[in-house]
Structures are given as C-alpha cells and as structure tokens.
Amino acid sequence: MTALLKARGLRKTYATRRGGFMRAPTRFAAVDGVDVTLLRGRTLGILGESGCGKSTLARLVLGLAEPDAGTVNLGGAAMPRPDTPEWRKLRTRLQLVQQDAAGALDPRLPIRAQVAEPLAIHGRDQAAADAVLSSVGLNRAMGARFPHELSGGQLQRVVIARALALDPEILVLDEPVSALDVSIQAQIVNLIADLQAARGLAYLFVSHDVNVVRHVSDRIAVMYLGRVVEEAPAAAFGERARHPYTRALLSSVPVPDPAHRRAGVPRIGDPPDPSAPPGGCRFHPRCPHATDLCRAEVPPLRSLSAGHAAACHRIEEITKCA
Ligand SMILES: Nc1ncnc2c1ncn2[C@@H]1O[C@H](COP(=O)(O)OP(=O)(O)OP(=O)(O)O)[C@@H](O)[C@H]1O
After folding, report:
1. d(CA 174, CA 172)
2. One GO CC term of this entry (predicted)?
C-alpha cells in the first residue's frame, strides 16, 4: 500500500525555559529522529506521557512547525515552508483536530458559519457545510446554534466537521477525546472510526490514553522523551509488547484510581524532565533492567519481527520473542 504521508528523521529543538539571566541558552530535542508513515484508511497511534513530544510531532507532520532536521513528504511532494501559498494549498489535504474544541471555535459565530468558513476561504460551495455537519451527527437546527449552546461532545463534532469540510485525506487528531467525559469519549471515538471507514481517511492519532489508542489504531508508536521506543501493530500491544516502557504503560492501565489512569503515568520512578533528557537510553533512570550499556549508549530502534521494532539493548534478554 502506498503511503499518503512519509516523514523521516524528524527533529525539533526548543530553548530550555530554565536558562536564566546571564546563562547561555541551551536547547533540547522535543522530537529526536522520528519517522511517521500514514496509509489511506489506516490509523497510526502515537502513545506517550505528557511532555514526550507528541504535540510537537503532530505540528511537524502538519507543517505548522519547521523541523531542525528531517523531511515530511505528502503524496510525493515535500512539505513547503509554513505560511507560504504552497503550504496553504497542501494543508487542505491535511487537517488538525485538537483537544480543546471550545478554544478552537469562535464564540461569536454560529457553528454552521464556522464549518462553512474554510469552504469560503478556498472558494468552494458553502452548501457542503450542511452535509458535513450531518455526517458528524449534527442537524440543521444545531448548525444555527452558537458554541456556548453546545455540549463538549457536540463541540468536538463541530471541530471534526470543520476539519472535514475541505475533504482532506489525512486528519491529525491531537488528544481528540481527552477533555471529554468517558461516556462521551466512546461516542466520539466511534464517530472518528466511522468517518475513517466512510472516507478512507488516514489518521495520526495522538494520545496518552493506552485504551483509546489501542482501540482506534492499526499501528502504534510509543514515544519516550522525543523518541519512538517501540512501534508495532495494535494487535501486538498487550501480551506481545516488548519494550520495558511500553510494558509499564500497559500495566498502568487498569488501576483503581481513575485520576492515575487518566494521567497515563506508569508507576515506575518519577516522570522525567523533557528539557533535560538523560544520556544513553533515555528511559534508563526508570528502567528496572538498566545496565552500564544503557546508561552509555542510545539503543537504536531495530526490527524484532515483521512490522515490530523496539529500541532497547536488552530486549532479547528481558522479554520472550513475540
Ligand atoms: N514552543 C515551545 N517552546 C519551548 N518548549 C516547548 C514548546 N512546545 C513544546 N515545548 C516543550 O517540548 C516538550 C514536548 O512538548 P509536547 O507538547 O510536544 O509534548 P506532549 O507529549 O504533547 O505533551 P502534552 O500532552 O503535555 O502536551 C515539553 O517539554 C514542552 O514543554
């Protein structure tokens, strides 16, 4: 199957906020050498804790941020620089759905007008707004309402409708259900799946929530401090996950305390500071299997079996073969 989007070796650095007066600013890599391949009708899930670089990766894939290194290729064309006419044209094929639906909408405009806006900007028939609103389960009467008259789930439907208005090929969904009540999350996740099936969309689905990512994804890449530590078919997650970090994430899922589960934080060691990643394997300070080699050398992401890769020096010793 040919890829709709291929990103290779993406790297993005930021200045640390801890520089302080008279100190030379230092930089850290929020995303450090990440590849992304998106296929028509398929979902790549990006899973990881807060601060691991998921949103930065999403912005790089959308061309909203310029990488320090690496390339994004969309249907054979290189991603143009942000805010150029070429970029705006290409961006119609690639849309973002964010977590903060209320913040993404204009409180002063009825929702139909907001869904019609991208159509107007690109000189397309604004009548398409009604059809796209209907495809996310919102009728004409709903289209006349203002954002403050809608529930959180309805607002997220509007944001999805607006992202779909220009009939894109790819949606980047950044924590699209994290702000919603659990009961509403399932409805929106199902809607997202139905829209993919109906339109053949490719999804990059970013979330800290293991259950949600496993439910929606065909493949899952687990990120830790800017790097992918494991990538595998979603079906291989669970028993067949190999990396100690993935296993820790999975073991943190069914816990009695829902606040803990929500945060998606594995119960191993302290969460790291993304702006000061440790040397060697970045996971080594929290890893029960770490050795001197792990402290000294970065483990490459290497293939373990067909479609399954992980970055761990000791993976063969510490896990059974998948
Ligand atoms: N524009 C920026 N300038 C400086 N640092 C940034 C910027 N954007 C993100 N960062 C830092 O980069 C790191 C990765 O952030 P990012 O938002 O990509 O992670 P994330 O996994 O999406 O986390 P979250 O779920 O909390 O948003 C964090 O330490 C964050 O503070």
Report:
1. 6
2. plasma membrane
